[in-house]
Amino acid sequence: ELILAVETSCDETSVAVIRGGKEILCNLVSSQIETHEKYGGVVPEIASRQHVESITLMIEQAVQEAGVTLEELSAIAVTQGPGLVGSLLVGVIAAKTLAMALDIPLIGTHHIAGHIYANQLVHELVYPCVALVVSGGHTELVVLEREGVFRIIGRTRDDAVGEAYDKVARALKFPYPGGPHVDRLAGEAEEEIELPRAWLEPDSYDFSFSGLKSAVLAAINQANMKGLTLDKGALARGFQNSVIEVLVTKALRAVHAEGAKQLLLCGGVAANKGLRTALAARCESEQVPLLVPPMSLCSDNAAMIGAAAHLKWKHAAFTSLDMKAEPSFSLEGWSVQS
Ligand code: ATP
Ligand code: MG
Ligand code: FE
């Protein structure tokens, strides 16, 4: 089957055409980073207006680039949530209009299921598996007992990892999104400023990053007040090492406790070099197969939405045309029923 997928949950407009849940015929991504950079973060009103400006043309281009015709499409998939409501709405309306006009099924898709199933576009998933989801809005450990069935065993109690990265980067005067800058700085640093690790309760799979972020901000303020030069690299490295150690330790504990056959890394922060390296090393020494999508499929894109939508296609679990965008959509609730 051919699924045309649309993703507009945040600040990337993306349209993809996917065959059989696996083969990417095209995956167009238009990022708004340049627009939001001058505001230091995503401005929701501007994001939705830009989606409106690009979506129609991008759908036309995607179909053309994929070398298919609209009549050949089997279904239209769209990110239903979670995300910014104004941004989601643009994709949802475009997808509904197309599904109605072509008289084919609509598949409202979960954004985080998309991040997880980005792995399916390049790897074979084996169940049960555990996914470590690290993105701008989420930090979660998810168990997949079977295909398309999600159980969240841990989540952040405050900031998401990507959010913490962006706030730290902003305090270090890097432009939005700052995650990659902190990653680079940490990788180049020779010194490290030791920062605390938030383990929480011994048996908990939850995360907390706001204390760590506050420790970084406090160190920056202190240096400013005393007129000292701050070793940005050492601070970035201390921050990154704290984040990575907690993520890697909890993820591996979950893999063993759940008898998982694979660990999947996904979400925008999966692009972090330090995290990829540390996770790969731990997985190798503990003989856990690690799946990581290529960089282009870590950040927001519609191909991953098409891959997740394929699960619902297989069960003919389609979405009514009167569905609404869901800014806080439940991942577990989106699981396939069977
Ligand atoms: P969500 O998927 O939770 O709805 P989102 O879609 O906004 O949130 P993504 O696009 O998946 O988030 O990821 C973007 C985040 O990833 C940003 O916070 C960005 O700083 C972070 N990020 C990207 N590359 C890196 C990196 N190399 N190191 C750390 N963080 C990074
Ligand atoms: Mg984004
Ligand atoms: Fe995302």
From TrEMBL:
Subcellular location: Cytoplasm
Gcp-like domain ranges (all copies): 23-306
Domain of life: Bacteria
Catalytic activity: L-threonylcarbamoyladenylate + adenosine(37) in tRNA = N(6)-L-threonylcarbamoyladenosine(37) in tRNA + AMP + H(+)
UniProt: substrate binding residues: V133, V134, S135, G136, G137, D166, G179, D183, N272
UniProt xrefs under CDD domains: ASKHA_NBD_TsaD_bac (cd24133)
Pfam families hit by this protein: TsaD
Keywords: Acyltransferase, Cytoplasm, Iron, Metal-binding, Transferase, tRNA processing
Family per record: Belongs to the KAE1 / TsaD family.
Protein name listed in UniProt: tRNA N6-adenosine threonylcarbamoyltransferase
Native organism taxonomy: Bacteria, Bacillati, Bacillota, Bacilli, Bacillales
Recorded name of the encoding gene: tsaD
